[in-house]
Amino acid sequence: MAVETVRWGVVGPGRIAGKVVRDFVHLDRAEPVAVASRSAARASAFAAEHGIPRAHGSYRALIEDDEVDVVYIATPHPQHRAVALAAIAAGKAVLVEKAFTVTPAATREIVAAARAAGVFAMEAMWTRFQPAIVRLRDLVADGAIGEVRAVQADLGVRQPVDPADRYYDPVAGGGALFDLTVYPISFAQMVLGNPDSVVARGVVTPTGVDAEEAVLLEFPGGRTASLFATLQCLTPGHARVVGTDGWIDVPPRFHHPDRIVLRRTGHAPEEIVAPATGGGYFHELVEVTTCLLEGRTESRVMPLDDTIAVQDVMGAVAAQLGVAPQEGPAEL
Q: Rounded to an integer, what distance in angstroms lies between the CA atom of residue 294 and that of residue 186?
């Protein structure tokens, strides 16, 4: 990309987008220049709060904005598909908030479009870019705990049942799966690769979304991941990677930790402190910006094939629980 500064547009000015935008202050060669909402007033308010020069009252207007190089998509999950496909068709890079979509088919559709167009696309799985998680990957790759045999992880929040709340609204992509379970699934896939089998058991609400699930993944060689996520109770949010020569603990909350603890057999525990910059979103923003400046169309840390693999697991979980995610339209 022959530019000196990567210009970002934000689609979906909600709570997470606000947190992400605040981390731009730590970046060089990147700036948010536009925001879009279906409500012009909401877009204007977000732009004023965060010092963004242009506010658009439709997603299409931002996608047609020639001053935008990359679109950060933070709409409800079922809307990701239409916005991402429109942005890619316009030649703009995309950073799509997790979960990437709500169906494996839609994920494959976006990935195929990006690859065919030679346009950068990445899932905004910030966990993989946290400095502490980078250290964990390095330790595993160096054999610090021997052969990895298992991953354990949990993530839960107490979200009282309210049919009017987006967490329990299937049209808004509600349920634990797309907001919470995606984290332990992606963590396990990062460490162990793609599973051979998926077994899921859980609780489905009267509105038709999942409130809780336990997921067992089996990988080649009999390796396993035991995962749990819930909207019904607050859990520690702890993860552990177990190997033949020890284990690595990721203290709560594991999806954005500031430290890990290496416990090698026969050695004293070693705490490795590696805090994130800003609110923690800085690191994924740097990855996208660097990839664009270097002309790369995929991240090596969060490649699209990993996003597909994670979405396939989520699809299997949904099917086994009897949940039918409602994907949004393919066009804006």
A: 26
Reply yes or no on whether 98 is catalytic: yes
pTM: 0.97
Structure tokens at 228: 């749990």
45-82 pLDDT, tens per residue? 999 999 999 999 999 999 999 999 999 999 999 999 99
Q: Provide the domain limits for residue 114.
A: 6-125+281-303
Per annotation, catalytic residue among 54, 56, 81, 98: 98
Residues 31 and 167 in one domain: no
Q: Are 123 and 302 in contact, with CB atoms under 8 Å apart? A: yes
User: DSSP characters for 225-279?
Assistant: EEEEEESBS-----EEEEETTEEEEEPSSTTS-SEEEEEETTS--EEEE-PPSTT
* Cβ 229 vs Cβ 179: under 8 Å: no
User: 147: which residues sit within 8 A by CB, 6+ positions away?
Assistant: 243, 244
Residues 141 and 270 in one domain: yes
Q: Alpha-carbon torsion 192, 198, 202, 205, what sign?
A: positive
- Alpha-carbon distance of 208 to 221, in angstroms, equals 36
Summarize pLDDT for 251-303 with one digit per residue, the tens.
Answer: 999 999 999 999 999 999 999 999 999 999 999 999 999 999 999 999 999 99
